[in-house]
Each structure stands twice: as C-alpha cells, then as structure tokens.
Amino acid sequence: LWCTFFRPQLVQPALESSLKKLQLDYVDLYLIHFPMALKVECHPYLNQSKLLDFCKSKDIVLVAHSALGTQRHKLWVDQNSPALLEDPVLCALAKKHKRSPALIALRYQLQRGVVVLAKSYNEQRIRENVQVFEFQLTSEDMKVLDDLNRNFRYVVMDILVDHPDYPFSDEY
Q1: 45: exposed, middle or buried (Cβ count in 10 Å: 0-12, 13-18, 19+)
Q2: What keywords appear on the UniProt entry (predicted)?
C-alpha cells in the first residue's frame, strides 16, 4: 500500500486498484507499513528536536539522513560550511570516550531514539560503526551535543527555494 493511501477510506480502493493492475482476484497478504518512518537531515548541527518530539508523539520513527554531517559534495553543499566531524566539542567527547567523532555523532542519535543508517564501503569504517553499541553517552554528554544545534542544513537545495512545495519553509 502506497503511503499516500493510509487513510482508512482509501485502503480498499487502493487494494482493488492493485489487484486490477496485477490481474488478480485476491492476495494472501496485503501489507500496510505502519507506523511510518520519516527520513530527514539530522545531526548535531541540525538536531530536529522539535520534529523528533512531534514524531514520537505520533509513533513515527525518525530516520537521520546525513547523521555525520556531509561529504561536502560541491554540487550540494557550500564548501564554506562547517565540518561537523571536526567540531572541537565533538572531538573532545570522542577523546573522552576513546571513540571517533563519527561514533559520538551516531551514538547521540541512537540515544535520542533516532534511527541512523551509516553507509560506508570502507571496511575499517564498517567495523568501527558497529562499535556504536559498545558505549553510552552520559546525560551531560547528551546535553553538550544538544547545545551544538545551530539549525544548520548541509542539504539546502537552493534551486528549489521558490517552489511551492519547498520543504524547508515549514515550521519543522
């Protein structure tokens, strides 16, 4: 079921449409994937705390996009933007916990209840990412990381700013 048909009155017509397109009379199982997940840019510089609180109140899982900041690709990111993983506060916490700044940023999200999908093709980073489950940040650490929030977006998509559906004009 497409996520645009989750309203109860739309489920049956959507099922019937799918059956017709598949040239079937019935299916053994029709999955409605709920609760939903919402994937947004989310990292210590843009912690999305207000959106996260809203999502939790509606049983929506927040998935962090760009949880480590960004690779700073020239097409998408201003090259003068701050490098999250070089932030002195993040680096100090990494030193304190004997972990990398990336692991601190990932652990921060997990402890907030945010899903992070750390994509890597580098075997060493993949092995390191698994270590995110081997330590905890203190409540003081979490507060320090919360205070890094600048409401700063790496992925702004300036070319779409005048579009009526441009998402970054909304409250969340």
Answers
A1: buried
A2: NADP, Oxidoreductase
Range of the domain at 19: 1-34
Q: 64 forms bridges with which residues in the sheet?
A: 40, 116
The string of pLDDT tens digits covering residues 91-137 is 999 999 999 999 999 999 999 999 998 888 899 999 999 999 999 99
Instruction: Please report the beta strands in 108-153, taking only residues with DSSP state E, as ranges in sequence order.
Output: 115-116
CA distances from 139 to 14, 36, 106, 157 (A): 46, 28, 15, 34
Neighbours of 118 (CB within 10 A): 18
Residues 125/64, Cβ–Cβ less than 8 Å: no
Q: Residue 128 falls within a domain, yes or no?
A: yes
Q: Which residue has the tokens 């017509």?
A: 13
3 state DSSP class of 43: strand
User: What number is the average pLDDT over the span 61-74?
Assistant: 84
- Give yes or no: residues 83 and 149 share one domain: yes
Q: How far apart are CA 160 and CA 153, in angstroms?
A: 15
